[in-house]
Amino acid sequence: MKPIALLIFQKQLKSSLDKVRKNHKPLVVDCVEEGDIVVISKTEYDNMQETFLQFKSVSGSSQNINK
Fold first, then answer.
1. What are the pLDDT tens digits along the chain (67 aa)?
2. CB-hemisphere CA count at 13 Å for 17?
């Protein structure tokens, strides 16, 4: 993932967001002093949350088995 400069991201906001949605790939925005940020689509975010909850559920059930 090659970062995009914050100024370019700001100038090309709509097209950058359209690419994130269309390609289903995250976009790294280089904010220099503040630290980079990652932009992902809502679909990708929802998928990550679902995966996290599944792992959390499996982890919690394995802890219950060990008790």
1. 789 999 999 999 999 999 999 999 999 999 988 899 999 999 999 999 999 999 888 776 655 555 5
2. 5
